[in-house]
Amino acid sequence: MSKTAAPSKPFTLRAYRPEDYPAILALWQYTRQRPYRPEQIERVLRSEGGVLVAEGVLPNGDKAVAGVLIWSHNGQVGHLWRVAVAAEFRRQGVASALIHQAEADIRASGLDGVGLLTRILNSAAQSLYVKLGYRHREDLIFWSKRFDGE
After folding, report:
1. What is the pLDDT of residues 103-116, one digit of tens each?
2. Model's pTM, two decimal places?
């Protein structure tokens, strides 16, 4: 009896490269997320965080940024930021793969766990996080203060 090979994923995961920035910026703009500037990405990387890129192949054979995830930490737990997936790569496991890899990297860094924030109306992301084992915390309130007036 012959075994059937599992279908390969339409993307691969890799570390961020500076030449990825224009595509990632366009992706954040498309998903209406506040973009990180290149110097902010470099700061995350210097502080032992990570920037993961999912690279996919378009129907015409060109490679493209399929998704991105930034993670950082506070010395105790990791935090996921800016999970975004390009429209043409949605519903193919890109976000789940990025999150699983970030969790593995965070665990390997010796951190105790991982958290994230999501917008109240982003039910698609919330459903994904529940599916991946994340719990909503009712006992926390998020506070912030911006220095740029927004």
Report:
1. 999 999 999 999 99
2. 0.88
